[in-house]
Amino acid sequence: MTTVSPYSFAPDGHGTKELHLVAVETLDSWLETQSRRVRNWLSSTGFAAKSGEIALIPDPDGALVSAVIGHGTARDRARARFHLGGSRRALPPARYKLHHALDPDALAEEALGWLLAGYSYRAGPPSPPADMAKLVAPDGVDAAQLQIIAAAEVFTRDLINTPAASLGPEELESAAMGLATRFGADMSVTYGDDLLYQNLPLIHAVGRASDRAPRLLDMRWGQTGPKLTLVGKGVCFDTGGLNLKPGASMGLMKKDMGGAATVLGLAQMIMASGWPVQLRVLIPAVENAVSGSAMRPGDVLTSRKGLTIEVNNTDAEGRLVLADALALACEDAPDTLICMATLTGAARAALGPDVPPFYTHDSALAQTLMSASARVRDPLWQMPLHPAYQAMIEPGIADLDNAPAGGMAGSITAALFLDRFVEGKTRFAHFDIYGYQPKPAPARPKGGVGQGARALFAALPDVLDL
To answer: Where's the Cytosol aminopeptidase domain (predicted)?
Structure first.
């Protein structure tokens, strides 16, 4: 079989096997279209089209002819995504052509899930991809676009999964630089104490305790069209600073740059698709470490915008680095500004690991995002920028408090904090993502995962009027 990337569709050709995706509701009618031999075989094996159930159909000599995958009930399909992808690794490593009764959106979801099911991460030198089942691009899908999305998601997952010892601010810069070089984007970087001279004091304050220098990554691509700026939190490891996290909370902090990884993946989708936009990506890349130079609880910092901030918890550092980046972004007056960050545990408490909240004042933007989220099955949920909670982030000694006491509405108050740094007529949305799959699921192994990028990729053409 011709070598094909696990994240690409295979060419059709001799030896391709049939692959049938059959739901419980349509099993009887589908069986009526099959030969007596197939009906007898499935009856003898007890195939009932349960979600993820697989039946392999042999020819009279015992060689594989086709496979049937159960698509479950409507309830099963509403409760889980990527059923086809969930079966990929259980199929014999052959080339398959899909037969189905899916609408276009469901077909695109299942085909993408198949590609993403090829993903795995293992630390160390890269190894050849495992031989696994391949799929011919189904009729009716935009195969090129699905492959672009899959490749970008793989990029995001790899960044999140890489241990912090191997991916600090410098390595995140290298990954972004590689992306910029690949697509002909320009990139500038502001390092270390130069952050102070360039009026990015909050990024410097958060990252100065580490011997891995903090920096701001600034990528630009495209000369014409609407201005789209993506800001991603790039905290490559978060100890909590002097407000040190307990061990159980620190264990996953290699993923605290998940916002940066996700906006880089989204940027890759946009550039690979050739959108007519002026794209800018801003990533404050830091490590929140502990040393004698670390910021302290009770410190008052002055931001790029001039707002003062009382640091009441050094573990609420993400909103600090994002504040300077958002203020810088608004100086360029983008038409649309997107912020993505693994920002609060409160978001997980409210919505769990699978549904990131987003915040925006723009009702049309929110409606477009929710519609795209449902269409491509990339879950999102709008949460309110509740004005009454503004007082919770105003400490009196300074303009803002980075960690309001009491612990209530933590995701909302973090979003309100960030909103203070956005000015002008820019459409703004902030996403409080988790960036991690805590348990294996179809097409999503345990580990880093992109969230919200596919919904944004589907929504932004309408938002930007492309």
So the answer is: 313-320
Protein fold of 147-463: Aminopeptidase (3.40.630)
Binning pLDDT at 50, 70 and 90, where does residue 122 land?
Answer: confident
218 phi and psi angles, rounded to 5 deg: -135, 105
285 contacts 214 by C-beta, under 8 angstroms: yes
Handedness of CA 368, 374, 375, 378 (dihedral sign): positive
The pTM for the full model equals: 0.96
Selected catalytic residue, list 319, 348, 420, 427: 319
Active-site entry in 77, 245, 375, 377:
245
Residue 305 annotated as catalytic: no
In order of 168, 362, 403, the CA distances from 309 in angstroms are 26, 26, 10
- For the chain, domain boundaries: 17-134, 147-463
Alpha-carbon gap, residue 373 to 356, rounded angstroms: 11
Amino acid identity, position 115: L
Residue 202 half-sphere exposure, CB side, CA atoms within 13 Å?
32
Cα end-to-end distance, the chain, whole Å? 40
Say how far apart CA 34 and CA 29 lie, in whole Å.
9
Residues forming a β-bridge with 282: 218, 231
Encode pLDDT of 309-332 as tens digits.
Answer: 999 999 999 999 999 999 999 999
SS3 label, residue 269: helix
CATH 3.40.190.10 fits 17-134, yes or no: no
Largest CA distance in the chain: 82
The C-alpha atoms of residue 193 and residue 177 are separated, in whole angstroms, by 21
The mean per-residue pLDDT over the stretch 167-193 comes to: 98
Is the pLDDT confidence value at 340 over 60? yes
Q: Which two tokens stand for residue 233?
A: 């939190």
For the chain, how many residues are written?
Answer: 466
Q: DSSP state, 257?
A: G
Q: What is the mean pLDDT of the chain?
A: 96
C-alpha–C-alpha distance, residues 391 and 209, integer Å: 31
Tens-place pLDDT, residues 19-37: 999 999 999 999 999 999 9
Q: Give 180-222 as a DSSP string.
A: HHHHT-EEEEEETTHHHHTT-HHHHHHHTTSSS--EEEEEEE-
Cα–Cα distance between 134 and 407 in angstroms, integer?
49
User: Cβ(216)–Cβ(452) under 8 Å?
Assistant: no
| pLDDT at residue number 4 | 67
Catalytic residue list contains 77? no
Whether the pLDDT of residue 186 is over 80: the answer is yes
